[in-house]
Design brief:
Keywords: DNA-binding, Transcription, Transcription regulation. InterPro entries: Cro/C1-type_HTH, HTH_LacI, LacI/GalR-like_sensor, Lambda_DNA-bd_dom_sf, Peripla_BP_I. This is LacI family transcriptional regulator. By secondary structure, this protein is α/β, with parallel strands linked by helices. The chain folds into two domains: 108 residues, Rossmann fold (3-Layer(aba) Sandwich), CATH 3.40.50.2300; 159 residues, Response regulator (Rossmann fold, 3-Layer(aba) Sandwich). Helix content is 44%, strand content 15%. It is built from 13 helices and twelve strands. It has a six-stranded parallel beta sheet, with helices on both faces. Strands 7-6-8-9-10-12 form a six-stranded mixed beta sheet, sandwiched between helices. Strand 6, helix 9 and strand 7 form a beta-alpha-beta unit. Helix 5 crosses helix 12 and helix 8 runs parallel beside helix 9. The radius of gyration is 24 Å and the shape is elongated. The N and C termini lie far apart (80 Å).
């Protein structure tokens, strides 16, 4: 393991005083922009953990868990935090909660968390570009767990789901209902979860022997606006080219799709069946109610806390079969999802029709 980099090392390499480095860590305004940028760059290059945090960890005095989340406006965050809070409630630890907002550097926020010297470990929801920094911290002994990472699988303990299998289940549900021409509204290409959900969609079509039509794949942003844009695009297609169903890669986009479809005169599910992904609370209250894949957000929060606290007393790896002292990958917990069937996929309508037909045949 590398020797720990100190604040004196950063000051020497940046050609500034220790007081200036401290002001950068605490985001004081009385530091020139070019100086701030140079100090932060050297911290990043050196994998710097502020000495106050390191001392707090070494002494074992901290009973605080640092939690870094995306903006609270993201609909998946509150349920994850509910699981985090309830798991912490049964321990001797407390939460120190931080949220990233527009214009704030996640790396700067992490540096501020550590500079306080209070937290003994770090839980990060959707770390994204912060992952390299977290890897540096983990290599220096800071217990780190991530939830729902959007990039390549990090070499960090993590909690999430199997997006590919879940998307396969969603698409196969539509196929089993008799739909053959199935579209897909995917998330941003740079997000691993969007890539995997697309792969699950393709695999389901292949396994069912259905042709893949690239004209039925639409690019989205995980925001409602791209769902509305997709509905408009589908409505402009000739009737003979329209899909019978669509799998949408998250519920936010599905809400936009349902709203625009109604305005455009597309009946859901009579004209087009819809399945989403996430099962956030609003999914049960839109009209028609949304069939979707339920992510276990609450369980993600609970499991992440339990894993993180276990790392405070043991290694952040799991054994590899047949490995003797070699590389051991970090623990990755994958939680199961489930399909929640509601009105938008047409299954309930089909079930009622079958019941009616059965009743008439008995008379």
């Amino acid at each position: 393991m590398k020797p720990k980099v100190t604040i004196e090392d950063i000051a020497r390499l940046a050609g500034v005083s220790k007081a200036t480095v401290s002001r950068v860590l605490n985001e004081r305004s009385n530091v020139k922009a070019e100086t701030r940028e140079r100090v932060l760059r050297i911290m990043q290059e050196q994998g710097f953990v502020p000495s106050l945090a390191a001392a707090g960890l070494a002494g074992g005095r901290s009973r605080l868990v640092g939690v870094l989340t995306p903006p609270f406006t993201q609909p998946t965050v509150p349920e994850i935090l509910r699981g985090v809070a309830e798991a912490i409630e049964h321990t001797d630890y407390e939460i120190v909660l931080y949220s990233t907002n527009a214009g704030q550097s996640p790396t700067t926020i992490v540096n501020r968390i550590l500079a306080l010297g209070l937290t003994s470990c770090l839980l990060v929801i959707q770390p994204g570009p912060l992952t390299p920094r977290l890897l540096q911290l983990a290599s220096q002994g800071l217990p780190v767990v991530v939830i729902d990472d959007q990039g390549p699988p990090p070499e960090l303990p993590s909690v999430g789901i199997d997006n590919r299998v879940s998307a396969y289940q969603a698409t196969m549900h539509l196929i089993r209902l008799g739909y053959r021409r199935i579209a897909h509204l995917q998330g941003p290409a740079e997000f691993r979860c969007a890539q995997e959900r697309y792969q699950g969609y393709r695999q389901a079509l292949d396994d069912a022997g259905l042709p893949f039509d690239p004209a039925l794949v639409f690019n989205g942003t995980f925001e409602t606006a791209s769902g509305r844009a997709c509905a408009v695009a589908l409505a402009t297609l000739p009737l003979t080219e329209r899909p019978e169903a669509i799998f949408i890669a998250n519920d936010q986009m599905a809400f936009g799709f349902l709203s625009a479809a109604e305005a455009l005169g597309l009946r859901i599910p009579q004209d087009l069946a819809v399945v989403g992904f996430d099962d956030i609370p609003l999914s049960a209250h839109v009209r028609p109610t949304l069939t979707t894949i339920k992510q276990p957000f609450y369980e993600m929060g609970r499991n992440a806390v339990e894993l993180l606290l276990s790392l405070l007393h043991g290694p952040a790896t799991q054994p590899v079969a047949g490995a003797e002292g070699g590389y051991q990958p970090p623990i990755r917990i994958q939680l199961p999802t489930r399909l929640v069937i509601r009105e938008s996929c047409g299954a309930l309508t089909l079930h009622r029709r079958q019941e009616q037909e059965h009743s008439l045949s008995d008379e």
